[in-house]
Design brief:
- The structure is a single chain.
- The chain has 276 residues and is of the alpha+beta class.
- It is built from six helices and twelve strands.
- The strands form two sheets. It has a six-stranded antiparallel sheet, with no helix packed on it. Strands 4, 5, 9, 10, 11 and 12 form a six-stranded antiparallel sheet that branches.
- Strand 6 and strand 7 form a beta hairpin.
- Helix 2 packs antiparallel against helix 3.
- The protein is rod-shaped.
- The relative contact order is 0.09.
């Protein structure tokens, strides 16, 4: 009989070591909202506090004091491409989103340090954007919520809604410029790849196909380099007049370029290749 109390105590002490962690709901659960605007993917991550029968504006969130715009840690905004928020330029990257709520106007701050627990380590020198937004009547939500609204290919409204108040952060994306730059990069890459393919086929003696590739490359982005590769292919095909003309063009373009690394090679060919 004397062994039973000892056994009960031993089992009790052993339970915490083997038991799973106890799951309980967070007072300010994490939340995230993502929206693609044109080609830019924008994500807002935050902890969502609840009213819990408290007066939010002016008390829980004091007027005219910097707020981390959520709970636990500073709310963050991350964008895959450059954009503007409230008319202010925000390059691609991740930022902390602070606000200074006011009864008639809010100050919105996009800060370059996203890894902040709150406002204590805030450094104004890292501000990327700062603008004013007017609060309006919104849904009487129990929890702070961010939503994207009025999304188009070039813009969206990021709305902060909580406890009867809504603040709109207008976002604009220069989608045409982004896509245009992407097309240019793609074409540059395509021209380079086609030229590399043409060089490979030239070395294998497949002149006809090599010429097709290099002409496609020059039609996309004509350079001294792909023009010279064309000249070499024509020379191998014994198209001497056309080869010399292409080589002269490559030489002229190369002399105007920053890095004419085959200058001597082109000059040597022009000195040795037949003129007719």
């Amino acid at each position: 009989m004397t062994r039973l109390p000892f056994l009960a105590i031993a089992l009790t002490l052993a339970l915490p070591a083997s038991a799973q962690d106890l799951d309980t709901p967070s007072l300010s659960p994490g939340a995230q909202v993502t929206q693609t605007v044109g080609v830019a993917e924008i994500t807002v991550s935050y902890s969502s506090p609840g009213k819990r029968d408290r007066t939010v504006w002016g008390e829980l969130v004091p007027w005219d004091e910097m707020w981390r715009t959520g709970a636990n840690s500073a709310t963050t905004l991350e964008t895959s491409h450059d954009l503007t928020i409230g008319g202010e330029a925000v390059p691609a990257g991740k930022y902390a989103l602070f606000t200074i709520p006011g009864e008639k106007a809010w100050t919105v701050i996009v800060n370059g340090n996203p890894d902040q627990g709150g406002t204590r380590n805030y450094d104004k020198k890292l501000d990327q954007a700062r603008f004013t937004a007017e609060p309006s009547k919104g849904a009487d939500r129990e929890r702070l919520t961010f939503v994207f609204a009025n999304t188009t290919a070039t813009g969206a409204d990021l709305e902060l809604i909580w406890a009867g108040t809504k603040v709109v952060l207008p976002i604009a994306v220069d989608t045409d410029a982004i896509v245009g730059a992407s097309i240019d990069d793609y074409l540059d890459s395509a021209a380079g790849n086609l030229t590399s393919g043409a060089r490979y086929l030239l070395e294998k003696g497949e002149h006809e196909r090599a010429l097709e590739l290099v002409e496609a490359a020059t039609s996309i982005d004509k350079s001294w380099f792909n023009t010279w590769i064309k000249a070499e292919i024509l020379h191998e095909q014994e198209e001497h007049k056309a080869a010399r003309k292409a080589a002269l063009t490559a030489q002229k373009m190369g002399n105007e370029a920053e890095n004419f690394f085959w200058k001597e090679r082109v000059e040597k060919a022009l000195a040795e290749w037949p003129k007719k």
